[in-house]
Specification:
about 90 residues, mainly alpha, 4 helices
Length: about 90
């Protein structure tokens, strides 16, 4: 359980740093902004064992969640950072 909490914390940090949805405001300490996406990503990490499949699924998740924003080029980079933390 501890390792899952650490992984979740690292994913949260990546999402806050990258802020793909443009919703995180550090001063407000809104730590729940990406809870839904983190929950889905954690499930994907358990399910997907092939990196390219995982990257594509996370890219689609971000596209579905945040749309075609100026951050869209970062979606696969964010997915790769998450994968690297997991592996």
């Amino acid at each position: 359980m501890k390792n899952l909490k650490i992984l979740e914390s690292k994913i949260r940090s990546i999402l806050f740093d990258e802020d793909p949805g443009g919703v995180y405001i550090k001063e407000l300490k809104n730590k729940d902004e990406y809870d839904l996406e983190i929950k889905i990503i954690m499930k994907l990490l358990k399910k997907e064992k092939i990196e390219t499949v995982f990257l594509d699924r996370v890219y689609k998740l971000m596209l579905d969640s945040f749309g075609e924003t100026k951050k869209i080029p970062r979606y696969k980079i964010i997915a790769k950072k998450i994968w690297d933390v997991y592996k």
